[in-house]
Amino acid sequence: MENREELILSIKQSRKTYLFEYLAGFIILGMLLIFYKYNIKINDSIFYFLIIVSIAAILYPEFDRNFIIPRYKITDKKISIITGVIKQSVKNIHFLPLGFIPEINLSQDRLPHLLNYGTISINSGNDYFKIKNIDNPKNVMGLIEELIESNRMSMSSNSKIEK
């Protein structure tokens, strides 16, 4: 019998959590375009400073999402929490231990609820972790609950076979 894992879902933090940064960057760029179009003169150093600030406001969230904030991979057997790029660490949480004392919670404030992103907290007694600011958290929570249950069922059917 093969013991290969199937990747079901790969998750990064939602871009929606950086809405303010994106908005600020695009507003500054828009202002600079209006200044250019209507031939409004501003000091060159201020102009270049605003360009740098707007580009940084737009690129920072992408850098943060891809290199700083943990990424998550859900397979049929476990959840992997991956942090870092150069010095990468991976924490694996297997569904079988989670099947015995699961406590899975979803938290969303008003704006995240409207934009459909949120944080899932999982506490099994031994392990406690959060999958922060992800899109479609209700779907992901349902998927995790299904995987915990299917692993629990396979564990109980395997123990019956061994007897």
Keywords for this entry:
163 residues, 3-stranded antiparallel beta sheet, elongated, 4-stranded antiparallel beta sheet, 5 helices, alpha+beta
In short:
The chain is an alpha+beta fold. The protein is built from five helices and seven strands.
Describe this structure in words.
With 163 residues, this protein is α+β, with helices and mostly antiparallel strands. The protein has a domain at 78-162. The protein is 49% helix and 26% strand. The chain has helices spanning 19-37, 44-68, 95-98, 110-115, 137-162, and strands at 7-11, 71-75, 78-83, 89-94, 103-107, 117-123, 128-135. It has a four-stranded antiparallel beta sheet. A three-stranded antiparallel beta sheet has the order 5-6-7. Strand 6 (117-123) and strand 7 (128-135) form a beta hairpin. Helix 1 packs antiparallel against helix 2. The longest helix is centred in the last third of the chain and has 26 residues, at 137-162. The radius of gyration is 22 Å and the shape is elongated. It starts with 6 loop residues before the first strand and ends with a helix. The mean pLDDT is 89.
Contiguous runs where pLDDT drops below 50 for at least 5 residues:
none
Q: Indicate the mean pLDDT.
A: 89
Output the strand order for the largest sheet: 1-2-3-4
Shape: elongated
Share in β-strands? 25-35%
Instruction: Count helical runs.
Output: 5
The largest β sheet comes out as: 4 strands, antiparallel
Helix content: 40-55%
List SSEs in N-to-C order. Answer: EHHEEEHEHEEH
Rounded to an integer in angstroms, the radius of gyration calculated over CA atoms is: 22 Å
Strands, total number: 7
User: Which structural category fits the helices and strands?
Assistant: alpha+beta
Distance between the termini: 19 Å
